[in-house]
Amino acid sequence: MAASFRLAVAVTCALVLVTACQGLQVGYYKKSCPRVEHIVRDEVKKFVYKNAGIGAGLIRMLFHDCFVQGCDGSVLLDPTPANPQPEKLSPPNFPSLRGFEVIDAAKDAVEKACPGTVSCADIVAFAARDAAYFLSRFYVKIDMPAGRLDGRVSNASEALDFLPPPVFNITDLVGSFAAKGLDTEDMVVLSGAHTIGRSHCSSFVPDRLAAPSDINASFANLLRRRCPANPTPGNDPTVNQDFVTPNALDNQYYKNVLAHKVLFTSDAALLTTPATAKMVLDNANIPGWWEGKFKKAFVKMSQIEVKTGMQGEVRKNCRVVN
Protein backbone atom coordinates (compact mmCIF):
# COMPACT_ATOMS: atom_id res chain seq x y z
CA MET A 1 0.00 0.00 0.00
CA ALA A 2 2.62 2.53 -0.94
CA ALA A 3 2.13 6.04 -2.29
CA SER A 4 2.20 4.69 -5.84
CA PHE A 5 -0.90 2.58 -5.11
CA ARG A 6 -2.71 5.57 -3.60
CA LEU A 7 -1.77 7.70 -6.60
CA ALA A 8 -2.95 5.01 -9.03
CA VAL A 9 -6.29 4.81 -7.21
CA ALA A 10 -6.66 8.59 -7.27
CA VAL A 11 -5.94 8.71 -11.01
CA THR A 12 -8.36 5.85 -11.71
CA CYS A 13 -11.09 7.57 -9.67
CA ALA A 14 -10.52 10.81 -11.54
CA LEU A 15 -10.79 9.03 -14.87
CA VAL A 16 -14.03 7.22 -14.11
CA LEU A 17 -15.53 10.19 -12.22
CA VAL A 18 -17.08 7.98 -9.55
CA THR A 19 -17.37 9.98 -6.34
CA ALA A 20 -17.65 6.85 -4.19
CA CYS A 21 -14.35 5.53 -5.56
CA GLN A 22 -12.20 6.52 -2.63
CA GLY A 23 -9.62 3.73 -2.62
CA LEU A 24 -10.63 2.63 0.89
CA GLN A 25 -10.42 -1.04 1.81
CA VAL A 26 -11.35 -3.19 4.77
CA GLY A 27 -8.07 -4.63 6.06
CA TYR A 28 -6.06 -1.85 4.38
CA TYR A 29 -3.20 -2.20 6.91
CA LYS A 30 -3.14 -6.02 6.84
CA LYS A 31 0.46 -6.07 5.59
CA SER A 32 1.85 -2.67 6.66
CA CYS A 33 0.49 -2.61 10.27
CA PRO A 34 -1.41 -5.84 10.95
CA ARG A 35 -2.29 -5.12 14.59
CA VAL A 36 -3.48 -1.52 14.16
CA GLU A 37 -7.18 -2.22 14.69
CA HIS A 38 -6.48 -4.26 17.85
CA ILE A 39 -4.21 -1.51 19.18
CA VAL A 40 -6.83 1.21 18.63
CA ARG A 41 -9.62 -0.94 20.09
CA ASP A 42 -7.58 -1.60 23.26
CA GLU A 43 -7.04 2.13 23.80
CA VAL A 44 -10.71 2.98 23.15
CA LYS A 45 -11.81 0.25 25.57
CA LYS A 46 -9.66 1.69 28.39
CA PHE A 47 -11.26 5.13 28.07
CA VAL A 48 -14.86 4.09 27.35
CA TYR A 49 -15.01 1.66 30.27
CA LYS A 50 -13.96 4.51 32.57
CA ASN A 51 -16.35 7.04 31.00
CA ALA A 52 -19.04 6.12 28.46
CA GLY A 53 -19.32 9.79 27.49
CA ILE A 54 -15.89 9.59 25.85
CA GLY A 55 -17.31 6.91 23.54
CA ALA A 56 -20.15 9.22 22.55
CA GLY A 57 -17.53 11.91 21.91
CA LEU A 58 -15.56 9.63 19.57
CA ILE A 59 -18.66 8.84 17.50
CA ARG A 60 -19.47 12.55 17.28
CA MET A 61 -15.84 13.30 16.41
CA LEU A 62 -16.04 11.19 13.24
CA PHE A 63 -19.22 12.99 12.17
CA HIS A 64 -17.70 16.41 12.86
CA ASP A 65 -14.46 15.47 11.09
CA CYS A 66 -16.15 14.07 7.99
CA PHE A 67 -18.60 16.95 7.43
CA VAL A 68 -15.75 19.51 7.32
CA GLN A 69 -13.00 18.97 4.71
CA GLY A 70 -14.00 15.28 4.52
CA CYS A 71 -12.80 12.45 6.80
CA ASP A 72 -9.23 13.70 7.06
CA GLY A 73 -8.43 14.30 10.73
CA SER A 74 -8.69 18.07 10.26
CA VAL A 75 -10.76 18.33 13.47
CA LEU A 76 -7.70 17.15 15.44
CA LEU A 77 -5.40 20.04 14.49
CA ASP A 78 -4.41 22.41 17.30
CA PRO A 79 -4.22 26.19 16.85
CA THR A 80 -0.88 27.59 15.65
CA PRO A 81 0.34 31.17 15.08
CA ALA A 82 -0.28 30.59 11.35
CA ASN A 83 -3.75 29.09 11.97
CA PRO A 84 -5.14 30.41 15.28
CA GLN A 85 -8.73 29.28 14.55
CA PRO A 86 -8.85 25.60 13.50
CA GLU A 87 -12.04 23.50 13.44
CA LYS A 88 -11.65 22.29 17.02
CA LEU A 89 -12.11 25.87 18.32
CA SER A 90 -15.33 26.45 16.36
CA PRO A 91 -18.54 26.76 18.45
CA PRO A 92 -19.94 23.37 17.29
CA ASN A 93 -16.75 21.72 18.61
CA PHE A 94 -15.54 23.86 21.49
CA PRO A 95 -15.84 23.19 24.35
CA SER A 96 -18.17 20.23 23.77
CA LEU A 97 -16.20 17.86 21.51
CA ARG A 98 -14.51 15.11 23.53
CA GLY A 99 -12.11 12.23 22.94
CA PHE A 100 -8.97 13.95 21.66
CA GLU A 101 -6.89 12.26 24.37
CA VAL A 102 -8.05 8.84 23.12
CA ILE A 103 -6.82 9.61 19.61
CA ASP A 104 -3.48 10.80 21.05
CA ALA A 105 -3.09 7.59 23.07
CA ALA A 106 -4.05 5.39 20.13
CA LYS A 107 -1.71 7.25 17.77
CA ASP A 108 1.19 6.91 20.24
CA ALA A 109 0.61 3.16 20.56
CA VAL A 110 0.25 2.72 16.79
CA GLU A 111 3.41 4.76 16.09
CA LYS A 112 5.40 2.48 18.41
CA ALA A 113 4.22 -0.55 16.43
CA CYS A 114 4.29 0.90 12.89
CA PRO A 115 5.96 4.32 12.63
CA GLY A 116 4.68 6.69 9.93
CA THR A 117 2.15 4.20 8.52
CA VAL A 118 -1.35 4.80 9.87
CA SER A 119 -3.14 8.11 9.32
CA CYS A 120 -4.88 10.00 12.13
CA ALA A 121 -8.01 10.08 9.94
CA ASP A 122 -8.11 6.27 9.95
CA ILE A 123 -7.53 6.19 13.71
CA VAL A 124 -10.55 8.51 14.19
CA ALA A 125 -12.66 6.16 12.04
CA PHE A 126 -11.47 3.03 13.88
CA ALA A 127 -11.99 4.67 17.29
CA ALA A 128 -15.55 5.77 16.43
CA ARG A 129 -16.32 2.25 15.17
CA ASP A 130 -14.93 0.74 18.40
CA ALA A 131 -16.88 3.17 20.58
CA ALA A 132 -20.07 2.07 18.80
CA TYR A 133 -19.12 -1.57 19.44
CA PHE A 134 -18.58 -1.10 23.19
CA LEU A 135 -21.55 1.24 23.77
CA SER A 136 -23.90 -1.14 21.91
CA ARG A 137 -22.72 -3.94 24.23
CA PHE A 138 -20.90 -5.58 21.30
CA TYR A 139 -24.02 -5.57 19.07
CA VAL A 140 -22.96 -3.00 16.45
CA LYS A 141 -20.01 -4.62 14.66
CA ILE A 142 -18.72 -2.55 11.74
CA ASP A 143 -16.14 -3.49 9.13
CA MET A 144 -14.40 -0.14 8.76
CA PRO A 145 -12.53 0.45 5.50
CA ALA A 146 -9.29 2.42 5.71
CA GLY A 147 -6.76 4.23 3.54
CA ARG A 148 -7.68 7.85 4.34
CA LEU A 149 -4.92 10.44 4.40
CA ASP A 150 -4.65 13.36 6.82
CA GLY A 151 -5.53 16.84 5.59
CA ARG A 152 -3.49 20.00 6.03
CA VAL A 153 -6.37 22.53 6.21
CA SER A 154 -8.53 23.21 9.27
CA ASN A 155 -10.76 26.26 9.50
CA ALA A 156 -13.22 27.13 12.28
CA SER A 157 -15.56 28.97 9.91
CA GLU A 158 -16.04 25.82 7.80
CA ALA A 159 -17.32 23.93 10.84
CA LEU A 160 -20.05 26.58 11.16
CA ASP A 161 -20.77 26.30 7.44
CA PHE A 162 -21.14 22.52 7.24
CA LEU A 163 -22.13 21.07 10.63
CA PRO A 164 -25.93 21.05 11.01
CA PRO A 165 -26.91 22.97 14.18
CA PRO A 166 -29.59 21.69 16.59
CA VAL A 167 -32.09 24.31 15.40
CA PHE A 168 -32.32 22.90 11.84
CA ASN A 169 -35.72 21.89 10.48
CA ILE A 170 -36.22 18.86 8.25
CA THR A 171 -35.54 20.72 4.99
CA ASP A 172 -32.28 22.12 6.36
CA LEU A 173 -31.22 18.69 7.66
CA VAL A 174 -31.91 16.91 4.39
CA GLY A 175 -29.98 19.59 2.49
CA SER A 176 -27.03 19.52 4.88
CA PHE A 177 -26.63 15.74 4.57
CA ALA A 178 -27.27 15.74 0.80
CA ALA A 179 -24.39 18.21 0.40
CA LYS A 180 -22.14 15.44 1.75
CA GLY A 181 -23.61 12.66 -0.40
CA LEU A 182 -25.89 11.25 2.30
CA ASP A 183 -29.60 10.70 1.69
CA THR A 184 -32.64 11.32 3.92
CA GLU A 185 -32.57 7.84 5.42
CA ASP A 186 -28.85 8.19 6.23
CA MET A 187 -29.70 11.42 8.07
CA VAL A 188 -32.51 9.81 10.10
CA VAL A 189 -30.36 6.77 10.89
CA LEU A 190 -27.26 8.76 11.92
CA SER A 191 -29.43 11.03 14.11
CA GLY A 192 -29.89 7.90 16.23
CA ALA A 193 -26.41 8.52 17.66
CA HIS A 194 -28.23 11.05 19.88
CA THR A 195 -29.13 8.01 22.00
CA ILE A 196 -25.80 8.59 23.80
CA GLY A 197 -23.82 11.58 24.98
CA ARG A 198 -24.69 14.85 26.64
CA SER A 199 -25.72 18.31 25.49
CA HIS A 200 -25.09 21.75 26.89
CA CYS A 201 -28.30 23.49 27.95
CA SER A 202 -27.49 26.40 25.60
CA SER A 203 -28.02 24.06 22.63
CA PHE A 204 -31.74 23.62 23.29
CA VAL A 205 -33.07 25.99 25.97
CA PRO A 206 -33.71 29.03 23.70
CA ASP A 207 -35.80 27.29 21.03
CA ARG A 208 -37.22 24.31 22.96
CA LEU A 209 -37.96 25.62 26.47
CA ALA A 210 -38.11 29.40 26.14
CA ALA A 211 -40.21 29.29 22.95
CA PRO A 212 -43.33 27.26 22.12
CA SER A 213 -42.46 23.74 20.92
CA ASP A 214 -43.93 20.24 20.77
CA ILE A 215 -41.78 19.00 23.68
CA ASN A 216 -43.49 16.76 26.25
CA ALA A 217 -44.55 18.96 29.20
CA SER A 218 -43.16 16.76 32.00
CA PHE A 219 -39.88 16.33 30.10
CA ALA A 220 -39.67 20.11 29.62
CA ASN A 221 -40.15 20.59 33.37
CA LEU A 222 -37.39 18.07 34.09
CA LEU A 223 -35.06 20.01 31.78
CA ARG A 224 -36.02 23.34 33.40
CA ARG A 225 -34.90 21.92 36.74
CA ARG A 226 -31.50 21.00 35.26
CA CYS A 227 -30.89 24.07 33.09
CA PRO A 228 -30.77 27.82 33.77
CA ALA A 229 -33.40 29.88 31.95
CA ASN A 230 -30.62 31.84 30.24
CA PRO A 231 -27.49 29.68 29.88
CA THR A 232 -24.18 31.58 29.68
CA PRO A 233 -20.64 30.34 29.02
CA GLY A 234 -20.08 30.48 32.81
CA ASN A 235 -23.34 28.66 33.61
CA ASP A 236 -24.13 26.07 30.96
CA PRO A 237 -24.61 22.60 32.48
CA THR A 238 -24.95 19.41 30.44
CA VAL A 239 -27.78 16.87 30.41
CA ASN A 240 -28.09 13.40 28.93
CA GLN A 241 -29.49 13.31 25.41
CA ASP A 242 -31.34 10.07 26.22
CA PHE A 243 -32.68 9.91 29.79
CA VAL A 244 -33.82 6.28 29.47
CA THR A 245 -30.63 4.42 28.44
CA PRO A 246 -28.05 7.24 28.50
CA ASN A 247 -24.93 5.07 28.04
CA ALA A 248 -26.29 2.54 25.54
CA LEU A 249 -26.09 2.84 21.75
CA ASP A 250 -29.56 1.48 21.00
CA ASN A 251 -32.82 2.46 19.31
CA GLN A 252 -34.24 4.23 22.39
CA TYR A 253 -33.69 7.59 20.68
CA TYR A 254 -36.51 6.87 18.21
CA LYS A 255 -38.89 5.96 21.05
CA ASN A 256 -37.94 9.29 22.64
CA VAL A 257 -38.67 11.12 19.35
CA LEU A 258 -42.13 9.51 19.22
CA ALA A 259 -42.75 10.49 22.86
CA HIS A 260 -41.62 14.10 22.18
CA LYS A 261 -38.87 13.64 24.77
CA VAL A 262 -35.88 14.86 22.76
CA LEU A 263 -33.67 17.90 23.25
CA PHE A 264 -33.23 19.44 19.83
CA THR A 265 -35.47 21.01 17.22
CA SER A 266 -33.54 18.86 14.73
CA ASP A 267 -34.60 15.71 16.65
CA ALA A 268 -38.27 16.70 16.77
CA ALA A 269 -38.07 17.60 13.07
CA LEU A 270 -37.89 13.90 12.12
CA LEU A 271 -41.65 13.63 12.73
CA THR A 272 -42.53 16.55 10.45
CA THR A 273 -42.70 14.64 7.15
CA PRO A 274 -44.56 11.36 6.55
CA ALA A 275 -41.46 9.68 5.06
CA THR A 276 -39.11 10.49 7.95
CA ALA A 277 -41.83 9.79 10.56
CA LYS A 278 -42.24 6.29 9.05
CA MET A 279 -38.46 5.74 9.36
CA VAL A 280 -38.63 6.81 13.02
CA LEU A 281 -41.46 4.32 13.65
CA ASP A 282 -39.59 1.45 12.00
CA ASN A 283 -36.35 2.25 13.85
CA ALA A 284 -38.27 2.38 17.15
CA ASN A 285 -40.35 -0.76 16.69
CA ILE A 286 -38.50 -3.35 14.58
CA PRO A 287 -35.79 -5.13 16.59
CA GLY A 288 -32.34 -4.85 14.98
CA TRP A 289 -33.64 -2.64 12.15
CA TRP A 290 -31.88 0.55 13.22
CA GLU A 291 -28.60 -1.15 14.12
CA GLY A 292 -28.37 -2.74 10.66
CA LYS A 293 -29.05 0.57 8.95
CA PHE A 294 -26.66 2.42 11.27
CA LYS A 295 -23.72 0.18 10.33
CA LYS A 296 -24.18 0.96 6.61
CA ALA A 297 -24.77 4.70 7.08
CA PHE A 298 -21.78 4.96 9.45
CA VAL A 299 -19.41 3.46 6.87
CA LYS A 300 -20.92 5.66 4.14
CA MET A 301 -20.30 8.75 6.31
CA SER A 302 -16.72 7.62 6.96
CA GLN A 303 -16.00 7.82 3.23
CA ILE A 304 -17.01 11.45 2.67
CA GLU A 305 -14.45 13.38 0.58
CA VAL A 306 -11.49 11.31 1.74
CA LYS A 307 -8.04 12.40 0.69
CA THR A 308 -5.79 10.06 -1.28
CA GLY A 309 -2.64 10.39 -3.38
CA MET A 310 -1.03 13.83 -3.18
CA GLN A 311 -3.99 15.42 -1.37
CA GLY A 312 -2.84 14.47 2.12
CA GLU A 313 -0.21 12.93 4.36
CA VAL A 314 0.25 10.55 7.30
CA ARG A 315 0.77 12.86 10.25
CA LYS A 316 3.40 11.96 12.83
CA ASN A 317 1.47 13.84 15.51
CA CYS A 318 -2.30 14.10 15.08
CA ARG A 319 -2.38 17.66 16.44
CA VAL A 320 0.02 19.23 13.91
CA VAL A 321 0.64 18.91 10.18
CA ASN A 322 4.01 17.41 9.24
Automatic annotation (TrEMBL):
<protein>
    <recommendedName>
        <fullName>Peroxidase</fullName>
        <ecNumber>1.11.1.7</ecNumber>
    </recommendedName>
</protein>
<feature type="binding site" description="axial binding residue">
    <location>
        <position position="194"/>
    </location>
    <ligand>
        <name>heme b</name>
    </ligand>
</feature>
<keyword id="KW-0575">Peroxidase</keyword>
<dbReference type="GO" id="GO:0046872">
    <property type="term" value="F:metal ion binding"/>
</dbReference>
<feature type="disulfide bond">
    <location>
        <begin position="201"/>
        <end position="227"/>
    </location>
</feature>
<feature type="binding site">
    <location>
        <position position="70"/>
    </location>
    <ligand>
        <name>Ca(2+) 1</name>
    </ligand>
</feature>
<keyword id="KW-0349">Heme</keyword>
<feature type="binding site">
    <location>
        <position position="68"/>
    </location>
    <ligand>
        <name>Ca(2+) 1</name>
    </ligand>
</feature>
<feature type="disulfide bond">
    <location>
        <begin position="120"/>
        <end position="318"/>
    </location>
</feature>
<feature type="binding site">
    <location>
        <position position="245"/>
    </location>
    <ligand>
        <name>Ca(2+) 2</name>
    </ligand>
</feature>
<dbReference type="InterPro" id="IPR010255">
    <property type="entry name" value="Haem_peroxidase_sf"/>
</dbReference>
<comment type="similarity">
    <text>Belongs to the peroxidase family. Classical plant (class III) peroxidase subfamily.</text>
</comment>
<keyword id="KW-0560">Oxidoreductase</keyword>
<dbReference type="InterPro" id="IPR000823">
    <property type="entry name" value="Peroxidase_pln"/>
</dbReference>
<feature type="disulfide bond">
    <location>
        <begin position="33"/>
        <end position="114"/>
    </location>
</feature>
<feature type="disulfide bond">
    <location>
        <begin position="66"/>
        <end position="71"/>
    </location>
</feature>
<dbReference type="InterPro" id="IPR019794">
    <property type="entry name" value="Peroxidases_AS"/>
</dbReference>
<dbReference type="GO" id="GO:0042744">
    <property type="term" value="P:hydrogen peroxide catabolic process"/>
</dbReference>
<feature type="binding site">
    <location>
        <position position="242"/>
    </location>
    <ligand>
        <name>Ca(2+) 2</name>
    </ligand>
</feature>
<comment type="similarity">
    <text>Belongs to the peroxidase family. Ascorbate peroxidase subfamily.</text>
</comment>
<dbReference type="GO" id="GO:0006979">
    <property type="term" value="P:response to oxidative stress"/>
</dbReference>
<dbReference type="Pfam" id="PF00141">
    <property type="entry name" value="peroxidase"/>
</dbReference>
<keyword id="KW-0376">Hydrogen peroxide</keyword>
<feature type="signal peptide">
    <location>
        <begin position="1"/>
        <end position="23"/>
    </location>
</feature>
<keyword id="KW-0408">Iron</keyword>
<dbReference type="GO" id="GO:0140825">
    <property type="term" value="F:lactoperoxidase activity"/>
</dbReference>
<feature type="binding site">
    <location>
        <position position="87"/>
    </location>
    <ligand>
        <name>Ca(2+) 1</name>
    </ligand>
</feature>
<keyword id="KW-0479">Metal-binding</keyword>
<feature type="active site" description="Proton acceptor">
    <location>
        <position position="64"/>
    </location>
</feature>
<feature type="binding site">
    <location>
        <position position="195"/>
    </location>
    <ligand>
        <name>Ca(2+) 2</name>
    </ligand>
</feature>
<dbReference type="InterPro" id="IPR002016">
    <property type="entry name" value="Haem_peroxidase"/>
</dbReference>
<keyword id="KW-0964">Secreted</keyword>
<dbReference type="InterPro" id="IPR033905">
    <property type="entry name" value="Secretory_peroxidase"/>
</dbReference>
<keyword id="KW-0325">Glycoprotein</keyword>
<feature type="binding site">
    <location>
        <position position="72"/>
    </location>
    <ligand>
        <name>Ca(2+) 1</name>
    </ligand>
</feature>
<dbReference type="InterPro" id="IPR019793">
    <property type="entry name" value="Peroxidases_heam-ligand_BS"/>
</dbReference>
<dbReference type="GO" id="GO:0005576">
    <property type="term" value="C:extracellular region"/>
</dbReference>
<dbReference type="GO" id="GO:0020037">
    <property type="term" value="F:heme binding"/>
</dbReference>
<feature type="binding site">
    <location>
        <position position="74"/>
    </location>
    <ligand>
        <name>Ca(2+) 1</name>
    </ligand>
</feature>
<feature type="binding site">
    <location>
        <position position="164"/>
    </location>
    <ligand>
        <name>substrate</name>
    </ligand>
</feature>
<keyword id="KW-1015">Disulfide bond</keyword>
<feature type="binding site">
    <location>
        <position position="250"/>
    </location>
    <ligand>
        <name>Ca(2+) 2</name>
    </ligand>
</feature>
